[in-house]
C-alpha cells in the first residue's frame, strides 16, 4: 500500500511520537509498503530526507496552525491509508482524524468522537461511570475561580490527600502531580493549567499499575508495570531500565479476567476501534480502577502494546498489519 505515516505533531508528546514513528516506519519498510512521512506541525515545510523526521532537532518551525496547511496540500495524493503515530493533543483528540475524513482517507485508530472522548479525561470518566467501568472519584477545576472552595471540595467529595492533579487532555503523565497535602494544590494546578484549560483532580489509588491492550475487540494478556519511582511518570515510561514489566502479570485468574473484561468495557464505552490500551490501578482488595483509555498508544521500543502482543504470540509487524487491516474494513 501507499501509506502516509503521521509523526511528530505539536503536542508536548512530540518527542515520543517521533520514537513511535521511527519504530513503525522501520517495520512498514520491512513489510515493503510505500511510505510517505508527514509531520503536520511543519505545514508545507516537509523534507525529502526521511531521517530528519525522527531526529531530536526540528528542521523547521512547528505549530498547530500548520495542520490545516498540511492537509490542504497535495501530500496525501494517492494515499491508501494514513497510519497515525501522533500522541496527545492535535493528534489523538480527533483533530487529525476529522481532517483525514474530510479528504476521504482511511486511518488507523479510533474515529473522531471516540478519539476526542478518550483524550478528554473528564468525559471518559463520565462514560466509564455510566457503563459501569470502575474508576476513582474525581472533580474538575478551571483556571478562573477555583479558590477558595476547591480545597473543601477535595475533602467533601471524599478525595482527600494524596490526590492526583493532571491536565484534562494530555497524555504521558505530562503536567501530573501527586499532591500529598493542601499546600501542594496551588502549584499542581498551575502546572496542569500550563497544558490545559481544565484540570482533573482524582482520588489517589495506592496499589499496582496494570494495563490491558485491546486489539480488534479482543483483550491481550494483562501487563504489570513496576516503575523505579513508584509512580509511572514520564521518565519511567520512556527511559530504558526505569521500569520493569511483567506480562502476563502474576495475578489470580479471576482478577486477570475481570481486568480484561473491564478493559473491553472501557474500550467499547468510548466507542473505540481497532486498538487501544486501557490503564488501571489495582488496590490491595483487588478492586479495579480504570485510569484512562489511550486510543493511540505508544509504539516505541519500551512501549506496552507491543510487549502485550508479543506475550500473545503476535510480532510487531503482525500487530501493525492487523491494525491496518482493521482500519481498511
Topology, please?
Blueprint: E1 2-6, H1 14-30, E2 34-38, H2 66-72, E3 81-84, H3 95-102, H4 112-119, H5 121-130, E4 138-141, H6 149-156, E5 163-167, E6 177-179, H7 185-193, E7 199-203, E8 208-215, E9 218-219, E10 223-227, H8 234-238, E11 243-246, H9 253-269, E12 275-282, E13 288-294, H10 304-311, H11 316-328
Parallel strand pairs: 1-2, 1-3
Antiparallel strand pairs: 4-7, 5-6, 5-7, 8-9, 8-10, 8-12, 10-11, 12-13
What's the short version?
This protein is of the alpha+beta class. The chain is built from 11 helices and 13 strands.
What does this structure look like?
By secondary structure, the chain is of the alpha+beta class. The protein folds into 3 domains: 2-107, Rossmann fold; 137-203, 2-Layer Sandwich (Dna Ligase, domain 1); 207-328, D-amino Acid Aminotransferase, Chain A, domain 1. Helices cover 33% and strands 20% of the residues. The protein is built from 11 helices and 13 strands. The strands form 3 sheets. Strands 8, 9, 10, 11, 12 and 13 form a 6-stranded antiparallel β-sheet that branches. The radius of gyration is 19 Å and the shape is globular. The protein starts with a strand and ends with a helix. The model has no long low-confidence stretch (mean pLDDT 92).
Amino acid at each position: 500500500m501507499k501509506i502516509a505515516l503521521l509523526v511528530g505533531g505539536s503536542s508536548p508528546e512530540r518527542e515520543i511520537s517521533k520514537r513511535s514513528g521511527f519504530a513503525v516506519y522501520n517495520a512498514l519498510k520491512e513489510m515493503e509498503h510505500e511510505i510517505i512521512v508527514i509531520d503536520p506541525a511543519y505545514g508545507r515545510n516537509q523534507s525529502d530526507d526521511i531521517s530528519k523526521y525522527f531526529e531530536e532537532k526540528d528542521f523547521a518551525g512547528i505549530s498547530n496552525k500548520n495542520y490545516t496547511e498540511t492537509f490542504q496540500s497535495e501530500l496525501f495524493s494517492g494515499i491508501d491509508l494514513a497510519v497515525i503515530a501522533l500522541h496527545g493533543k492535535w493528534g489523538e483528540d480527533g483533530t487529525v482524524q476529522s481532517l483525514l475524513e474530510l479528504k476521504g482517507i482511511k486511518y488507523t485508530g479510533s474515529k473522531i468522537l471516540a478519539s476526542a472522548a478518550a483524550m478528554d479525561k473528564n468525559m471518559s470518566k463520565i462514560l466509564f461511570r455510566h457503563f459501569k467501568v470502575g474508576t476513582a472519584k474525581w472533580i474538575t477545576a478551571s483556571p478562573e475561580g477555583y479558590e477558595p472552595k476547591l480545597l473543601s471540595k477535595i475533602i467533601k467529595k471524599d478525595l482527600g490527600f494524596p490526590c492526583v492533579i493532571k491536565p484534562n487532555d494530555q497524555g504521558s503523565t505530562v503536567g501530573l502531580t501527586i499532591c500529598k497535602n493542601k499546600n501542594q494544590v496551588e502549584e499542581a494546578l498551575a502546572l496542569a493549567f500550563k497544558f490545559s484549560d481544565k484540570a482533573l483532580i482524582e482520588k489517589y489509588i495506592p496499589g499496582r499499575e496494570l494495563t490491558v491492550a485491546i486489539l480488534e475487540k479482543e483483550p491481550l494478556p494483562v501487563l504489570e508495570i513496576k516503575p523505579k519511582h513508584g509512580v509511572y511518570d514520564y521518565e519511567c515510561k520512556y527511559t530504558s531500565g526505569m521500569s520493569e514489566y511483567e506480562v502476563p502479570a502474576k495475578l489470580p485468574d479471576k482478577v486477570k479476567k475481570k481486568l480484561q473484561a473491564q478493559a473491553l468495557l472501557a474500550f467499547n464505552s468510548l466507542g473505540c476501534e481497532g486498538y487501544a490500551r486501557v490503564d488501571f490501578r489495582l488496590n490491595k482488595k483487588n478492586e479495579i480502577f480504570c485510569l484512562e483509555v489511550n486510543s493511540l498508544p505508544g509504539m516505541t521500543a519500551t512501549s506496552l502494546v507491543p510487549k502485550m502482543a508479543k506475550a500473545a504470540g503476535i510480532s510487531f509487524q503482525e500487530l501493525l498489519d492487523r491494525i491496518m487491516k482493521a482500519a481498511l474494513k
